[in-house]
Amino acid sequence: MKKSKRVKKSNSWKIKQHRDQYFKKSKTLGYRSRASFKLIELNKKYKFIKKNTNLLDLGSSPGGWSQVANQIIKSGRILSIDIKEMEPIKNVKFLKTDILEKKTKKEVIDYFNSNIDVIISDMAADTTGNKSLDSIRTNQLCFEVINFSKNILKPKGVLISKLFMGDDFIEVKNLAKSVFKKVNFFKPQSSRKESKETYLHCEILKSL
Question: pLDDT digit string (tens) for 67-114?
């Protein structure tokens, strides 16, 4: 019975994907995931990716966000990081590593040879089936990304990070406001309606 339920759930997910306009558009336009459209919407609203931007993409695999950034950035550099493999993208440097490891911050600084303009993160914890737990674990990653950004971004740098509406949402919001002067939240139209995800947009570091 358990196997049958898993098969039904998998088939239901496949049907939803094929009915999804953003899934179809991503295939048509050659994007690796429908999440590409989330970054397109975020950048249209906040205009943080420019031709000369130096950008760090965290949780980058399969590469949808890096593809979007790469279409805009011409004279800046892009570094993508994930614990999962990612197929190569021209003009994008990829590191298979964990941002929580101490060595990663040094690798980032060494690659750009300076602090950077933008950090984008679409990281989410692997799902467990427990939505409350999944929300907490993903928001913990957002927490880590905010702390990680403090010494990596330029003073007027921008951070974009996924988080979920949940019990610890206020904690993440308060941390963001303690680190950045401007903090906004935005849910793109390309996010699934039933999803509790939203995106954090932070700009201009407070003096440490």
Answer: 999 999 999 999 999 999 999 999 999 999 999 898 998 999 999 999
pLDDT tens-digit profile of 10-52? 554 454 544 578 778 777 776 889 899 999 999 999 999 999 9
**Catalytic residue chosen out of the listed positions 74, 105, 154, 162:** 162
Query: Coil, strand, or helix at residue 186?
Result: strand
Q: Give the C-alpha distances (Å, rounded to integers) separating 115 from 112, 149, 155.
A: 7, 10, 9
Q: Compute how many other C-beta atoms are within 10 angstroms of the C-beta atom of residue 65.
A: 29
Question: Is there a catalytic annotation at residue 93?
Answer: no
Residue 67 CB: number of other CB atoms within 10 A?
21
Q: 162's torsion region: left (phi>0), alpha (psi -120 to 50) or beta? A: beta
Residue pair 36/68 in contact by the 8 Å Cβ criterion: yes
Residue 15 is predicted with a pLDDT of 43
Encoded amino acid at 113, one letter: N
- Calpha distance 36→64 (Å, rounded): 5
Q: Among all chains, which residue has been given the structure tokens 């737990």?
A: 133
At 28, is the secondary structure helix, strand, or coil? Answer: helix
